[in-house]
Specification:
Four copies of one chain form a homotetramer. Chain A is globular, with a radius of gyration of 20 Å. Helices cover about 35% and strands about 20% of the residues of chain A. In chain A, β1, α1 and β2 form a beta-alpha-beta unit. With about 350 residues, the first copy, chain A, is α/β, with parallel strands linked by helices. Chain A has 13 helices and 15 strands. Chain A starts with a strand and ends with a helix. Chains in contact: A-B, A-C, A-D, B-C, B-D, C-D. Chains A and C meet through α13 of A and α12 and α14 of C.
Chain lengths: ~350, ~350, ~350, ~350
Amino acid sequence: MLKAAIVGATGYTGEELVRILIGHPQVKITSLSAKIDKPLPISELCPDFKGKVDLVCKGFDLDEVAGDSELVFLAVPHGVAVKLAPSLLEKGKIVIDLSADFRLKDVSLYPKHYGFSHEAPKLLGEAVYGLPEIYRQDLKKANLIANPGCFPTSVILGILPLAKKNLLDKSSPIFVDAKTGLTGAGREAVLDFLASEAEENVRAYKVTRHQHQVEMEQILAEAGGGAVCQLVFVPHLIPIQRGILSTIYLQLQNEKEEKEIWQIFKNFYRDEPFVQVLELEHFPETKSVRMGNFCQIGLRRRGKVVVVIAAIDNLVKGAAGQAVQNMNIRFGFPEDMGLGVNSKFKHQNAK
Amino acid sequence: MLKAAIVGATGYTGEELVRILIGHPQVKITSLSAKIDKPLPISELCPDFKGKVDLVCKGFDLDEVAGDSELVFLAVPHGVAVKLAPSLLEKGKIVIDLSADFRLKDVSLYPKHYGFSHEAPKLLGEAVYGLPEIYRQDLKKANLIANPGCFPTSVILGILPLAKKNLLDKSSPIFVDAKTGLTGAGREAVLDFLASEAEENVRAYKVTRHQHQVEMEQILAEAGGGAVCQLVFVPHLIPIQRGILSTIYLQLQNEKEEKEIWQIFKNFYRDEPFVQVLELEHFPETKSVRMGNFCQIGLRRRGKVVVVIAAIDNLVKGAAGQAVQNMNIRFGFPEDMGLGVNSKFKHQNAK
Amino acid sequence: MLKAAIVGATGYTGEELVRILIGHPQVKITSLSAKIDKPLPISELCPDFKGKVDLVCKGFDLDEVAGDSELVFLAVPHGVAVKLAPSLLEKGKIVIDLSADFRLKDVSLYPKHYGFSHEAPKLLGEAVYGLPEIYRQDLKKANLIANPGCFPTSVILGILPLAKKNLLDKSSPIFVDAKTGLTGAGREAVLDFLASEAEENVRAYKVTRHQHQVEMEQILAEAGGGAVCQLVFVPHLIPIQRGILSTIYLQLQNEKEEKEIWQIFKNFYRDEPFVQVLELEHFPETKSVRMGNFCQIGLRRRGKVVVVIAAIDNLVKGAAGQAVQNMNIRFGFPEDMGLGVNSKFKHQNAK
Amino acid sequence: MLKAAIVGATGYTGEELVRILIGHPQVKITSLSAKIDKPLPISELCPDFKGKVDLVCKGFDLDEVAGDSELVFLAVPHGVAVKLAPSLLEKGKIVIDLSADFRLKDVSLYPKHYGFSHEAPKLLGEAVYGLPEIYRQDLKKANLIANPGCFPTSVILGILPLAKKNLLDKSSPIFVDAKTGLTGAGREAVLDFLASEAEENVRAYKVTRHQHQVEMEQILAEAGGGAVCQLVFVPHLIPIQRGILSTIYLQLQNEKEEKEIWQIFKNFYRDEPFVQVLELEHFPETKSVRMGNFCQIGLRRRGKVVVVIAAIDNLVKGAAGQAVQNMNIRFGFPEDMGLGVNSKFKHQNAK
């Protein structure tokens, strides 16, 4: 049994990690910690765990977290992980960081987009970006995994097959109109996210200025073999609890048949356990991926324009599920272990 | 034109007062104030006022609020009104207080239920409880009006006809199961009321211990001619924005025909402009009273038991609308003026 | 592996059965059927099954359903199960019926409460009511299990310990104010349940006339050793998707300490895997039982009055989960198998 | 008093018309009709009208509708208005049609986009498109007004200033990502729009194939002086009741300062009573226009790209409110009469 610690267990992402890992046949949770004053059963902090999870969450203590764990998940705010990771790595722990602190390669972007000076720039070079669909081989031996942001996961997966094939018209911007549910804002008392404010309302925020945009641009440039299109990214807040739907407006260099474009996606993700390319005329909805680790993708063509729609659960494939997928890769477990696609199903499929 | 000031204009109740008064043909708003650092157009604080309300909200200043206003609405938290009202009354202003600070007659209840020692106990004797269906005559000459709580408004109106007629079995408790929307919790950043916490959830709170219970008991005892039944009051939080539905379980001394009970309600409220007794077999829903000043009541009998269901909009009949109704009574305007039942309608009705 | 068929797989209850059984280590689903025109992958009808469940749903055919299955779940509308069960039982199948068709003992109640004349009255005597907390021993050898209604499950569990101990004041009615989410209305196109009608709204329905009331009364009378109190049951529709919160207002013959009442509940459910009695001062919320098979119960006393609040997920403990719990009992599997409380957790608990 | 009839009074749009007109000082509703079996008080069909509107809704009868009305609003499904309008016009009535039946100039588009052959092609030439911001002068003398679609209203207003000035890069498509609430789907029992299906979900529909796209293209081409850009329109369904937020991605021929673009919008709509151009750095939300007739517009520039976000209430500026605005123009009333911007406010503004 792999011994794992979770730091930041009381946020939405941390809670989701607990939910998934408790059902993982090869993991034992050895430590739960969070910014709390005194130890409390996690089932008191997250009452749906009552009767399912009987672990105690404590205030953070480096030695205790490191303790006998082999793996530490950091589900902490941006700017905190960068302070914790170096010591954990020095102690020989594998770290999967769900914050943004090790996602960007260019250290100068941190002050601008995250408001802090990065204290461990060397680790930016060592960290592997935890999107298995691109970096699976590197992840197998990574000691520090930078788990992707929720928006980037859906957007990169929706653009990647065309970027890799160099089919995009680079003179045209890619417009990404994303819709996210309210857990994306985190478990913090903020007026704007009160139910009495956020329900019965839709609004854009950080229009073209969201910090995830540089993350997408970096990965797409790297994965797509250099320069890609300009991204114009506009996230919207939607009154649902979980889910991201990213509607992506692309332009190709040359017009292609819709079927042909679809086939490119289909082939590209053929062996991916968690990317589902829907049949033509079908588009994903957030409820179809709710509580699951899948990214569903649908597309339509109109002239040179391709509209790609990608849906994920922001807390699963957009955070905790993908972190577990990365853990599985890193420790040599079946990639879908503990992620809701059990062997019985695979067997029934095989019939 | 009556000159009115609103203190606490940026809470949900204050905002609703502005919404209603701006359309009132006999009122001019002379001052909006709130706990803010610098003056701001109210339309910036409440963006749906843009293009409709062009007033500036300032930090509270007694002289400025008193200024040339004749009437001051206090839409401030409990414990604050008690500090403001005395000075305003001394300056000769009429005060309509939407907090609980002048609702209870027994000063000893404040520390227990509201957590503060009442500094103006004499005013408790002078304040008139602003439920027109009981105290209309007193309200006509009141200088300090204690506007009722949202739950008490719906519950008292649902019990009153039977209490007045002395039909209740006083040995049986009255059970009140109330459901309220999320604006009832106020515009304050509290974790439990985040959309990501409160949506897709129903829960009871302050079970049998809500501070509104003593308010109901006091008024029902007074109005019902002395002792009434014990109340067992359990409020529930429901993921809607506006509305209260109170389901009241009563027992009569003697069994009566359903039709007869209904007739008692119908007669009792015959001349009330804002209480609607629905036909038998019909029950109110919160959406039927949304944004209106009506209390709708439906009932069913089963043996000696009567189930009464009362619905109001918590921000209108449960707060700002009733405050304006009280203002109309106090200043001799038609009681329904500015409350959505315009003269044209009455004329069309009269046809 | 137990071979199980599900009839009515496309309703909310049927879909939930599939969701649970697909993860059950001892069950193989051999047939999915529903009222559909042509066979379709269940993942097309319920798109969140895509990548998880690769079964085909067909139109109902008795021989095919019976086929090589040992167990048949009927998740069909009231009045349909009564037509299917006799043939299936004759063919030697075990039947777990999630409709109301075999819950009532008195055949004369069917025309009145369900609108049909019961064609298999003899089976009413043979059917065992599938509430393990009462009928566990009988369920072990039952061939026809009448899975309880969603409301009755929460209400009976909230009253049972006091009824069994004969502590209730039988001269006082028990008032049950229940709140249910919208999946309770089933997957049928009905105007009143449109999001544009049912959101931002709360309403009572079938006030004191809901068909589940006789079911509760029957079971409580039987379990409580004869006559019990009159029930006054008022269900309310709440804009959530899943969940029932039943607030129960009881009166005791003799006043007792709150702690003592709590201890009675605690003892009564000590060995129950799926009933959780919360600590005093704690009350359940629907989100705490969402997607789980637990019934959470909290209580408060005031004089002779006891307020009991019980929460379940209407589709799990209120339907499909309880059906699987019954299946586990009937076929000798661990009672919590496949219901989210895995052995690893129990082991971690045991540490 | 202008005598007005409403056909289709029980749909969401018809109900909203009643709500607005009942408060209009110059209108008397002389007839309400709908597809119903027997006459019913409108307050029974729409229970929030109880106590406010005392009119009876009848089954449609041409003579009765025409009766003594001067103006008829058609709030009927597409394909029905085309059958009713000719007779009403012959009888000398002014007709404001809220369906799509007279919006398109090219009669051949009807079979393709609306599924019927148009029987009154001549009227397509006579009808005036009811967007006052473009066609105010023509509306003053129009006998048949084709009230715009909800999406087109928000989208055309968001693009118009740049199209008119010929600033758009015509070689680049305009991408429109629209989000609409659930009343947009109409008051019809459809499975997909059940609360239990549509809540906690976001999805695109009619991707690039929505019938409103040709309407936008026609008007923009006409208003923008001929050819405009290709539109790529993707509507999304969002779990709110009212509101449309259209996020529009445009490209300019030549880069301009953000401030300069904003000034173009500001100047263009300077005298418009119902279009509000927000300050830079501000963007609209649907709740800011809820229940009002305003279209709020915000924008941001990034290189040659301009992101314009436009919000309306789909039932008001997107339907009934705009219809009343058109009525005001046609009959010479102040354009904002009865639309929530009363003279007192204007006076208070003027101070």
